[in-house]
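**User:** Here is a favour to ask of a fellow structure person. Please take any protein you like and set down a full record of it. No explanation is needed for now; the record alone will do.

**Assistant:**
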Amino acid sequence: MFHIVTGILFTAGCYLIGSIPVAYILVKVISGADIRSVGSGNVGATNAGRVLGKPGFVLVLILDTLKGFLPIFLSLKLCQIYGFPRDIPLFCAMAVILGHAFPIYLGFSGGKGVAASLGVFIALAPIPVLGAASTFLLSVFFTRMVSVGSMLAAIVNAIMIFILYSKWQGLCVFATLVALFVIYKHRGNIKRILAGTENKVFNK
C-alpha cells in the first residue's frame, strides 16, 4: 500500500512539474508576447525560437529537458533506495510528458512533449538517446524541419530501446507509446509536410 500511495503522489507531482510552461513564461517575460498567439502557437522550444531567436530555442530546450530529467532521475534513485517496483518511474515519466503536452496551468494546451521526453529518456536509457539525438540533428540539417527530426528521433529511440533494453518490457512499451504520442502530436506538421508548407527552422 505504501508503494502505491507513494507512486501516485510522485506521479501527480511529476505531472505538475511537467506542466510548467517554460516557453510561455520565458517568451512572456522577455518579449511580453503570448507564445500561443505567435508563430505556430505551440508552447515549445521551436516556437520560442521563432520569437526569441536561437538563444531562446536553446534555453527553452534545456529547461524543458531538465524538467523531464530531474524528477525521473529522482524517482529512479528512490526506487533503488526503498526497493519500489522499477516500473514506477515509467508512470512518472509519462506524467511529465503529459504535463508538458497538456499543462494544467494553460488550460491543458501545451507543447508536443519532445523536450520533456528527451529529459525522461536521458534518465531512463541514456545510450539510445545518443542515437536519437544524432538522428534529430542529421534530419534537421538536411530537411531544416524540427518536426521531421523530432518524429524520426522518437522512432529511433524506441527501436534502440527494444534492442538494448529488451528485458525491461515496461520500458519497451513506454518508448513505443512515446514515439506514437510524438507522431500524433505532430499530425498537423505531417499534413503541412505533405502539402509542402511546413515551417523551416526558425522561419515564420
User: Anything to note?
Assistant: The radius of gyration is 17 Å. Residues 2-195 form one domain. The chain has a mean pLDDT of 92.
